[in-house]
Amino acid sequence: MIISKTPLRVSLFGGGTDYPAWYRENGGAVLASTIDKYCYITCRYLPPFFPHKYRIVYSRVETVKDAREIKHPAIRAIIESFKEDRGLEVHYDADLPAKTGMGSSSSFTVGFVNALKSLRGESIEKSELAKLAIHLEHEIMKENVGVQDQILAAHGNFNKIEFNTDNSFNVIPILLNPEKLRELQSHFMLYFTGATRVASDVAADQIKNIRNVSSHYKKIRELVDEALTIIEGPTASIFELGKLLHDSWLLKRELSNSVTNPKIDNIYQSGLDAGAIGGKILGAGGGGFILFFATPETQQKIRERLKHLIEVPFRFESEGSKIVLDKPNGFI
Questions:
Q1: Domain segments of the chain: what residues?
Q2: d(CA 119, CA 121)
Q3: Distance between CA atoms of 153 and 40, rounded to whole angstroms?
Q4: Which end of the chain is more exposed for a tag (fewer CB within 10 A), N or C?
């Protein structure tokens, strides 16, 4: 039996420039971090005593004889791509709900690939794990998604990731001393809007509109370096990072009509009215989680204002996808 543990992520700056439709012509970059919220994939070879060959457990339970019958698109695609003809049992659990802008779909893909590789006795480097997950989502599953989530889930850490026109990428860890890291993390607040959405659908609308708002994407890319100057600078006020997040949100909401809606706008404005300096919707938009940036002194007032929503405390993590249990089950 194999259990993989793969982190979710928060993307701070540069989101959207990781769409192939953009970076293959212009390059791109994001500033983002994985966090201490995870998806867990349990995978084992199924003993040959059952009328089914595959048992898949997530929000529903599937028991089928042929991989082509599996309804879960990622599991079906990965099993077929791996040409895995032995019976499998796969369980999926996560700390946060899916379809909420935390990169859960790509974390699932990365985590399942990692688990299945380990089950087969094969090793895979983090960069290769990310590349394989990107290939599966783009070429096999035909998802309209970027590439930052797969890279972050595989590598972990707080990173600047550069996307090159030749489809290669550079992962540059952001190294902060513990005090600076604690200060940065203490300013973030994460809230669930209560709405889920299919990221690929929202992203498809943005991708169609890329050429019409190319100046916005160029500015969104520039904000990555501006944010790094603030974070790494010895004298820059961290207060400026909140303002920059607000600027980023104002740009992002104009990328397409699907990014925001009255409910999201109301939540965001309520956070600002209660003292937040800035923030943004995570992921492609349309629902999911909102990230606020606020001084510790103002956070209680924000909590009172948004008490109808679920707040999710979090910390950055640095390990990426890993195998936390590797125990043969004897059925090979």
A1: 1-332
A2: 5
A3: 12
A4: C
CA distance 3 to 119: 9
> Cβ distance 153 to 321 under 8 Å?
yes
C-beta neighbour count of 134 within 10 angstroms: 25
C-alpha distances out from residue 53 to 86, 101, 132, Å? 8, 33, 25
- The residue type at 30: V
The reported pTM is: 0.94
Is residue 305 within 8 A of residue 270, CB to CB? The reply is yes
Residue 186: helix, strand or coil by DSSP? coil
Strand order in the sheet with 188-192: 278-281, 289-293, 188-192, 310-311
Task: State how far the Cα of 5 lies from the Cα of 93, in Å rounded to an integer.
Answer: 10
Q: List the Cα angle 202/224/189 in 5-degree steps.
A: 70
Rounded to the nearest 10 degrees, what angle do helices 126-135 and 148-155 cross at? Answer: 150
The pair of structure tokens assigned to 120 is: 């087969």
Measure Cα distances from 204 to 5, 19, 75 in Å: 29, 10, 22
What fold characterizes domain 1-332?
Ribosomal Protein S5; domain 2 (3.30.230)
Share of the chain above pLDDT 70, in %: 97
| pLDDT tens string 4-49 | 999 999 999 999 999 999 999 999 999 999 999 999 999 999 988 9
Alpha-carbon gap, residue 183 to 192, rounded angstroms:
23
Please, which residues bridge with residue 158 across strands? 33
210 torsion bin: left (phi>0), alpha (psi -120 to 50), beta (else): alpha
Quick count: other Cβ atoms within 10 Å of Cβ 179? 8
